Automatic annotation (TrEMBL):
<feature type="transmembrane region" description="Helical">
    <location>
        <begin position="116"/>
        <end position="142"/>
    </location>
</feature>
<dbReference type="GO" id="GO:1903425">
    <property type="term" value="F:fluoride transmembrane transporter activity"/>
</dbReference>
<keyword id="KW-0812">Transmembrane</keyword>
<protein>
    <recommendedName>
        <fullName>Fluoride ion transporter CrcB</fullName>
    </recommendedName>
</protein>
<keyword id="KW-0472">Membrane</keyword>
<dbReference type="Pfam" id="PF02537">
    <property type="entry name" value="CRCB"/>
</dbReference>
<dbReference type="InterPro" id="IPR003691">
    <property type="entry name" value="FluC"/>
</dbReference>
<keyword id="KW-1003">Cell membrane</keyword>
<feature type="transmembrane region" description="Helical">
    <location>
        <begin position="183"/>
        <end position="204"/>
    </location>
</feature>
<feature type="transmembrane region" description="Helical">
    <location>
        <begin position="21"/>
        <end position="43"/>
    </location>
</feature>
<comment type="similarity">
    <text>Belongs to the fluoride channel Fluc/FEX (TC 1.A.43) family.</text>
</comment>
<dbReference type="GO" id="GO:0005886">
    <property type="term" value="C:plasma membrane"/>
</dbReference>
<keyword id="KW-1133">Transmembrane helix</keyword>
<feature type="transmembrane region" description="Helical">
    <location>
        <begin position="55"/>
        <end position="74"/>
    </location>
</feature>
<comment type="function">
    <text>Fluoride channel required for the rapid expulsion of cytoplasmic fluoride.</text>
</comment>
<feature type="transmembrane region" description="Helical">
    <location>
        <begin position="148"/>
        <end position="167"/>
    </location>
</feature>
Length: 209
């Protein structure tokens, strides 16, 4: 629900504004962070687990309710994001009218030096968080508690985001030589199915252990 709400903000309302600063930033937010946050496989896995226990009514109701929640979260996020953007533009316009100008051009990553500095900072932060996640996952993995699952997910998140970004290139390409079904987001579908399969394997392993 939170991921769908924020996706409406950054993937619909503020997407054009963020693209003026950096194309890589908008790709990272939408495909990377939002794409991982809005993965629907966790909810579906819980519904599959309920159906395996013969709770079919709850499972079907949960799937329908989940789709409804996602749709409403995107709608509410788009409405609130539009109002927030209008308020920000109004404040900028008022400040400009009294002599205080707001120029976003200095934030734009359009030079080799800015790209190098930004990549260096991001790589340092990524390496630190990644190593920390792997160490904590190894320490807590023996218990297979919630903390172990959390840090294990953090440790495999970067490769998952990279894979999701590459799979997103398949969206709109279609299937076969005739490129049929272009409307179907093949890359996103493959990413979600793969995530659901991995989560199902982890759930089976946790129950077996």
């Amino acid at each position: 629900m939170l991921g769908s709400f924020l996706m409406a903000w950054f993937g619909i309302i503020f997407k054009t504004d963020i693209r003026h600063i950096s194309e890589h930033l908008i790709v990272g937010i939408t495909t990377g962070y939002m794409g991982s946050l809005t993965t629907f496989s966790g909810w579906n896995q819980a519904m599959v687990s309920m159906s395996s226990k013969d709770h079919w009514a709850y499972a079907i109701a949960g799937i329908v309710l989940g789709m409804f929640i996602v749709n409403e979260s995107i709608r509410v996020g788009a409405e609130t994001g539009e109002r927030l953007r209008s308020w920000i533009l109004k404040c900028i316009k008022e400040n400009s009218s009294i002599g205080s100008t707001c120029n976003w051009e200095h934030l734009k990553v359009n030079t080799r030096t800015k790209h190098f500095v930004l990549i260096a900072v991001m790589m340092i932060l990524l390496s630190f968080v990644w190593v920390l996640s792997i160490v904590l996952a190894i320490i807590k993995v023996r218990n297979l508690d919630d903390g172990a699952v959390l840090w294990l997910g953090c440790s495999v998140a970067p490769p998952g985001v990279w894979l999701r970004w590459y799979l997103a290139r398949l969206n709109g390409q279609g299937i076969g030589k005739q490129r049929s079904l272009k409307w179907l987001p093949i890359g996103t579908l493959v990413a979600n199915v793969l995530a659901a399969g991995i989560m199902a394997s982890l759930a089976v392993t946790a129950k077996a252990v």
